[in-house]
Write a structure and sequence with these properties.
- By secondary structure, the protein is an alpha/beta fold.
- Helices cover 44% and strands 12% of the residues.
- It contains eight helices and seven strands; from the N terminus they run αααββαβαβαβαβαβ.
- The protein has helices at 5-16, 23-35, 40-54, 71-74, 89-98, 125-134, 148-161, 186-194; strands at residues 56-57, 64-65, 82-86, 104-107, 139-143, 167-170, 197-198.
- The strands form two sheets. It has a five-stranded mixed β-sheet with strand order 4-3-5-6-7.
- Helix 1 crosses helix 2 (23-35) and helix 5 packs across helix 8 (186-194).
- The longest helix is centred in the N-terminal third of the chain and has 15 residues, at 40-54.
- The chain is elongated.
- Bound molecules: zinc ion.
- Zinc ion binds at residues 58, 60-61, 63, 69-70, 72-73.
Length: 199
């Protein structure tokens, strides 16, 4: 079946809504792909269909992966007793890119917000508490946003963890994080991790 002009326009309009793309880039990308429709475009289409079918959240940490438990959670070398708590999966991927942290992660999936009626049970906070004894955790590093919601979340978790005796630390102050970790260069992320402080 031949693609109609409408279909191509719809593809451009859909691509234009992707993060980092606008109408101009979307047109360029679509034209680039159409010129390689039997190669790169076919490969991309089949990869997208496969990822759409198989991508899921890791049952332990919330990372997005192709299996029920992600490679970080299954790697015994990463059972260091440290868990780094992040707001979003993008933060986890940014930290992994920097290779500064060799423990495991926990993705909250958002921040506490009275305004948006997001409470502890809407985030993956109960699951975090369960992991403490299951994985013999000794330190929880809160790599959360410097926003009011991020700090409210950090304080809530620090208090919830207090009875456990686990060390709770935060990244160096002044680092804009929480969904924005992805925009930091790897050196800054590494420095922020090294300069973590007790909460
Ligand atoms: Zn995982």
């Amino acid at each position: 079946m031949a693609a109609s002009g409408d279909e191509i326009e719809t593809l451009i309009a859909t691509m234009a809504r992707l993060p980092g793309l606008g109408p101009r880039s979307a047109r360029r990308v679509v034209l680039h792909l159409i010129r390689r429709r039997t190669g790169q475009m076919a490969q991309l289409a089949s990869l997208m269909a496969s990822v759409a079918e198989n991508a899921r959240e890791c049952l332990v940490c919330g990372n997005v992966t192709g299996s029920d438990i992600c490679p970080i959670c299954t790697d015994p070398a990463r059972a260091t007793g440290e868990i780094c708590v992040v707001t979003e999966v993008a933060d986890l991927w940014a930290l992994e890119r920097g290779r500064a942290f060799r423990g495991r992660y926990h993705v909250l999936g958002g921040s506490l917000s009275a305004l948006d009626e997001i409470g502890p049970d809407d985030l993956r906070i109960p699951q975090l508490l369960e992991r403490l004894s299951d994985e013999r955790i000794t330190e929880v590093i809160l790599a959360l946003s410097a926003t009011v919601e991020g700090q409210t979340t950090a304080h809530y978790i620090a208090e919830a963890l207090a009875p456990s005796g686990v060390a709770v630390t935060g990244l160096a102050q002044g680092v804009p994080i929480g969904g924005e970790l992805d925009y930091l260069d790897d050196g800054t992320i590494t420095a922020a991790l090294r300069a973590r402080r007790k909460l």
